[in-house]
Specification:
Number of domains: 1
CATH class: Alpha Beta
Order of helices and strands: EHEHEHEE
Strand content: 25-35%
Structural class: alpha+beta
CATH architecture: 2-Layer Sandwich
Bound molecules: nickel (II) ion
Largest sheet: 5 strands, mixed
Distance between the termini: 45 Å
């Protein structure tokens, strides 16, 4: 029997990543804690009058390589989806006050990366899934989320 033609073989699943940038202000502090305790737990991020971070977001998706394009997803499309559903809401905003989907949550890197996942995952094209998010708050500090 002849071997299967190459076009009938499953295409490999590949992960591709787009990196995006935004700047935002925040404050980490609990209203039900004293200033001292907030400073102890949250350090510089507890300063009362806000401060900013230059965030870097790495969005990784996984899917089959398309036979015609050789792409999992056109990275222009992925960039536009992230800009529409995440970046326009957070860039040059105050994460404590301006972002409806972060309301009631402390804007830690951990909470933010989970919020971004929930914003983004329903909007990916059929056959492409969100695989991993890495959110850098500073060049030395990141949070990573794979869903679930
Ligand atoms: Ni901070």
């Amino acid at each position: 029997m002849a071997p299967p033609a190459p076009h009938s073989l499953p295409m490999p699943q590949v992960r591709v990543t787009r990196r995006l940038h935004f700047s935002a202000a925040h404050r980490l502090a609990r209203e039900d804690w004293s200033d001292d305790r907030n400073r102890q737990v949250f350090g510089d991020c507890a300063h009362p009058n806000w401060h900013g971070h230059n965030y870097e977001l790495e969005v990784t998706v996984v899917g089959e390589v398309d036979r015609e394009t050789g792409y999992v997803i056109d990275l222009k499309t992925l960039k536009q989806l992230v800009e529409e559903h995440v970046i326009k809401d957070v860039d040059h905003r105050n994460l404590n006050l301006d972002v409806p989907w972060m309301e009631g949550l402390l804007p830690s890197t951990e909470n933010l990366v989970v919020g971004i996942w929930e914003r983004l995952s329903p909007h990916l094209p059929t056959g492409v899934e969100l695989d991993n998010l890495v959110l850098w708050e500073t060049p030395r500090h990141k949070a990573e989320y794979r869903g679930g």
